[in-house]
Write a structure and sequence with these properties.
A: ABC transporter involved in vitamin B12 uptake, BtuC, 1% strand, B: mainly alpha, 74% helix
């Protein structure tokens, strides 16, 4: 009984994502499948970032580096070595995890804004490096050989399949996020977030806990990267490492509420929805970025804990359900 | 020998550019030093400075070096405005809040700028002649820009060490609570520091516009350079930023002589991360 209650917080997130997955399946509309894909991708990335940002309290400004790096490695094996997309995703995820492990050993010693700066530096260094790396196509990037799709029954079938894989990855990201949150390991991370020195005194081995949180938050973005570039059919350095998207992910986590499982879902959905509306609206389409900026500013200034944090604070009975 | 010649031609240019980069970084590092805020709206303000030169020179025919003073004044006012709107409320909040608050200012400026100027490149066709120095040709605009950069650094130094508001700024940098107890109006001083930081950004943008083409989005590249320079010179150490700028300028002058130019950012950002790791206080040590 007690066990069942701990996992109550997973119920709403799963339901929400299931709703997003089913929406295009029911309407059988390709364009709504594309928007659902974008939202699911945002949810998977934001939930992964949340493990580091929300639970551990480390602000990573260059989290997109794992998406780009994993995507590049995976696509290389799919395109040049003829591996299947499954093997490609696996190797992309592993590559990102490995990168996070090595980076984490080094840069997680830095705290606060210094860490944030280092992650920006790493993203830019990686982008500049890939730009010069001939094996991955340098500045032109890689274009997927069209025959790769044949193994999956043609391009249209492959696109449909990518949607379901994306859904699977999103569910995986949520489940990882939930189990990190409820585990003893996650408790250690949250102790680090509140006060790292005190946490160490209480017996949390901060360096290794932080490194594993970093690795966990990197694997899913790596796999998402492979899938997205596979679906898109090509990859270029400036598409793979957009610093801007890194910050958009931060905004999503912040919008929904950092340190919660449901928060990033809500944030990703709201942010993508708002962007979609602004880009197409007649009044705002020229200054959509400014309007997003104003909304973000208002949230940062007045509801810094995000929507879920605000609800939990205002309506205590909801705390059990809204995790 | 050919590499040596190439080095001789590209080095002076790199050094002159380094001074201008240094001014941009000085603004960033001043704000960081005083209030522990990384100003992510730095890049767009640099871009605004560029467009300031463009409007004043192309549309109104004012000499860019005279217009510079107007741009500096507007930059100061803009900074004070940004401080009170976006930063003041989150000054004591965790880092993420101030980072996102300044980033939202970044989005607002870029959004409006894109609507007004579009994202296509602009160019200020301004020529101050050039002269031969050994085997290399030095452009007049770059030399003057470097001189102005040095002038601004000297001015900032005098302001911080010789005037009363400057001393207040250093007191708040050192210990805000203690400064408040001594009667320093800390909110006004913080706003002034933020204004000075954005002023320096706008000035560097105005100078860069006299010799490079630019668009509303090109500020972000210089913002990243400012991060690198700030860390090289020690975050929170405005004078160190000038030396950091020189080092970056030297790198940009030296590396192309030996490697493809495309490798410059790899080395820059690699160096940036390494310095953060082994000496987070910068090569010259932050004044804390």
């Amino acid at each position: 009984m007690k066990n069942w209650r701990t996992h109550l917080g997973l119920f709403l997130p799963l339901l929400a994502v299931a709703g997003i997955v089913l929406w295009p399946v029911i309407t059988e509309n390709v364009s709504s499948r594309e928007s659902a894909f974008t939202i699911l991708k945002a949810i998977a990335l934001a939930s992964s970032l949340n493990i580091l940002l929300g639970y551990t309290g480390y602000v990573s400004f260059g989290h997109i580096v794992f998406y780009g790096f994993g995507g590049y490695v995976g696509l290389y094996f799919v395109n040049e070595q003829g591996w299947s997309i499954w093997a490609g995703m696996l190797v992309g995820g592993i590559a990102s995890g490995l990168l996070a492990f090595l980076l984490g050993k080094a840069i997680l010693r830095l705290r606060g804004a210094y860490f944030a700066l280092a992650t920006i530096g790493i993203n830019e260094a990686m982008r500049a490096f890939i730009n010069n790396f001939d094996l991955f196509g340098g500045p032109i990037g890689m274009t997927l050989n069209f025959s790769v799709y044949k193994a999956y029954g043609g391009a249209a079938k492959a696109l449909g399949m990518s949607f379901y894989i994306m859904a699977g990855l999103t569910f995986a990201a949520l489940i990882i996020s939930h189990f990190v949150r409820t585990s003893k390991f996650g408790l250690g991370l949250q102790a680090i977030r509140e006060n790292e020195d005190a946490a160490e005194v209480m017996g949390v081995v901060a360096p290794s806990a932080k490194t594993w949180a970093y690795v966990l938050s990197a694997i899913i973005p790596g796999m998402v990267g492979v899938l997205f570039f596979f679906k898109n059919g090509n990859v270029e350095p400036h598409v793979a490492f957009p610093l801007h998207s890194s910050i958009e992910l931060l905004v999503m986590v912040m919008l929904g509420g950092q340190g919660t499982v449901l928060g990033p879902i809500l944030g990703a959905f709201a942010y993508q929805g708002m962007r979609g509306y602004l880009v197409t609206s007649d009044i705002f389409k020229d200054i959509q970025l400014s309007v997003s900026g104003v909304v973000l500013l208002l949230i940062v200034l007045f509801i810094p804990t995000g929507a879920i944090g605000w609800l939990r604070h205002r309506v205590p009975p909801l705390r059990r359900v809204l995790a | 020998m050919q590499q040596f010649n190439l080095l001789l031609t590209s080095l002076p240019d790199g050094i002159l550019l380094g001074f201008v980069y240094g001014v941009a970084a000085m603004g960033l590092t001043l704000i960081w030093g005083v209030m522990n805020v990384i100003n992510l709206s730095h890049g767009p303000i640099i871009a605004l400075g560029m467009f300031g030169t463009f409007i004043l020179f192309i549309n109104m025919g004012i000499n860019p070096y005279i217009g510079l003073f107007l741009i500096a004044a507007l930059g100061l006012l803009l900074g004070v405005l940004i401080y009170f709107v976006a930063v003041n409320r989150v000054i004591n909040a965790p880092h993420l809040s101030s980072l996102l608050a300044t980033f939202s200012v970044n989005m607002i400026i870029i959004g409006i700028g894109t609507a007004v100027f579009t994202t296509s490149p602009y160019n200020v066709d301004f020529n101050m002649g050039s002269f031969q120095l050994g085997s290399t040709i030095i452009l007049g605009t770059r030399l003057i820009a470097a001189l102005i950069a040095i002038l601004f650094t000297g001015g900032l130094y005098l302001f911080l060490y010789r005037t009363r508001p400057g001393k207040f700024i250093r007191a708040v940098t050192n210990n805000r609570a203690a400064a408040e107890l001594m009667g320093v109006p800390s909110t006004r001083i913080l706003a002034l520091s933020f204004g000075l930081g954005t002023m320096l950004a706008a000035v560097s943008g105005a100078l860069i516009a006299t010799f490079f083409p630019f668009s509303i989005l090109s500020g972000s590249g210089y913002e990243l350079k400012s991060f690198v320079i700030g860390v090289l010179g020690g975050l929170g150490n405005p004078i160190g930023a000038l030396f950091g700028g020189l080092i970056l300028g030297l790198l940009e002058g030296i590396v192309p002589a030996f490697l493809n130019t495309a490798w410059v950012p790899v080395i820059e950002f690699g160096l940036f991360v390494v310095i953060l790791l082994i000496r987070p206080t910068g090569l010259f040590g932050a004044k804390r």
